[in-house]
């Protein structure tokens, strides 16, 4: 987290009371409800549904898989005509297209080997079609966009934790470029980044609601990653891991940063790990099921050697039990792959 106050002190449940000049408020579920002049409302699934800010309010809609499919901003007390609306189309858990009111459709193309790194976007149809090329840093975060003739149409100064300090255009014309850290979409009506399963506040480098997988992902339920140059989290939660210091063993779910936090908490730091492994399977459900199979393999919930709680089972158990035989075979194969990587490892 990007804390600006060295005397901040202890914070209950990692709920920051504010960041910079912004004051924060939370509901009983740990979801941010007040920020700047904004009031945030959430549904029972932990999804942001409405933000009220001054004389406007923005509504958000989601599909059955939890992906955001639309957002619309209205003037308060002025009827039901949207001032602006954007509809979204997804390819799995990756943004494929958006239709921005009065701007039309935009299709995003990504790197074949880095699935959340944009390489181009396409607007218009037929003779009016235009291709825009993205220039990214090592993490896949856009830094510049150029037209087909090489003209710079957008440049950002995106800091390490995703905050954009400047929008620059040689032509002086506005260019719609909402992509930020991998998997994140900038909402100009709030200043937050939509991160699929959660929303992210770039000014303080953390999510504004708790990790939906709870403490299984680590002890800081709001953390993005301690080093965004080497760790990315395009879904807001990702990866499965296992580690040991020779005495205590643990299996968990979350990005690499969560694994290292878990090492700090359970074995006194990563330097004490004599074996560890982390893998991202590119599908959150697969990750949960792999975690479940590893926990079953090692009897992690009941073994005195494991720090996993007997009271908490992996959410992957229900998914695995409901999966078809082909999916179960794939999960078992991936679990064995992660276990082999773990057994072959030699510490941090």
TrEMBL record:
The keyword ATP-binding does not apply. Residues 17-211 form the Teneurin-like YD-shell domain. It comes from the Bacteria. Coiled coil: none annotated. Signal peptide: none annotated. It holds the Pfam family TEN_YD-shell. The keyword Cell membrane does not apply. Keywords: Repeat. InterPro entries: Rhs_assc_core, T6SS_VgrG/RHS, TEN-like_YD-shell, YD. This is RHS repeat protein. It comes from Salmonella enterica (Salmonella choleraesuis).
């Amino acid at each position: 987290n990007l804390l600006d106050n060295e005397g901040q002190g202890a914070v209950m449940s990692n709920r920051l009371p504010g960041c910079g000049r912004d004051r924060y408020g939370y509901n009983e579920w740990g979801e941010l409800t007040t920020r700047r002049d904004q009031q945030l409302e959430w549904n029972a699934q932990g999804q942001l549904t409405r933000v009220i800010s001054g004389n406007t309010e923005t509504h958000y809609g989601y599909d059955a898989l939890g992906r955001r499919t639309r957002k619309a901003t209205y003037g308060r007390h002025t009827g039901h005509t949207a001032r602006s609306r954007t509809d979204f189309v997804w390819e799995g858990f990756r943004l494929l297209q958006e239709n921005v009111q009065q701007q039309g459709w935009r299709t995003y193309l990504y790197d074949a080997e880095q699935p959340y790194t944009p390489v181009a976007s396409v607007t218009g149809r037929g003779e009016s079609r235009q291709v825009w090329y993205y220039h990214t840093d090592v993490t896949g975060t856009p830094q510049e966009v150029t037209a087909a003739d090489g003209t710079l149409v957008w440049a950002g100064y995106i800091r390490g934790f995703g905050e954009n300090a400047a929008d620059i255009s040689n032509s002086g014309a506005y260019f719609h470029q909402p992509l930020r850290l991998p998997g994140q979409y900038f909402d100009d009506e709030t200043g937050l980044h939509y991160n699929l399963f959660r929303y992210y506040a770039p000014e303080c480098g953390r999510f504004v609601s708790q990790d939906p997988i709870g403490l299984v992902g680590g002890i800081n339920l709001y953390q993005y990653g301690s080093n965004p140059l080497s760790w990315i989290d395009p879904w807001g939660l990702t990866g499965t891991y296992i580690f040991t210091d020779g005495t205590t063993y643990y299996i968990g779910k979350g990005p690499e940063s969560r694994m290292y936090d878990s090492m700090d908490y359970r074995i006194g730091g990563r330097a004490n790990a004599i074996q560890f492994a982390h893998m991202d399977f590119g599908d959150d459900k697969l990750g949960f099921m792999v975690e479940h199979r590893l926990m079953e393999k090692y009897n992690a919930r009941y073994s005195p050697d494991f720090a996993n709680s007997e009271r908490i089972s992996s959410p992957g158990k229900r998914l695995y039990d409901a999966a078809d035989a082909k999916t179960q075979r794939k999960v078992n194969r991936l679990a064995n792959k992660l276990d082999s990587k773990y057994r072959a490892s030699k510490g941090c």
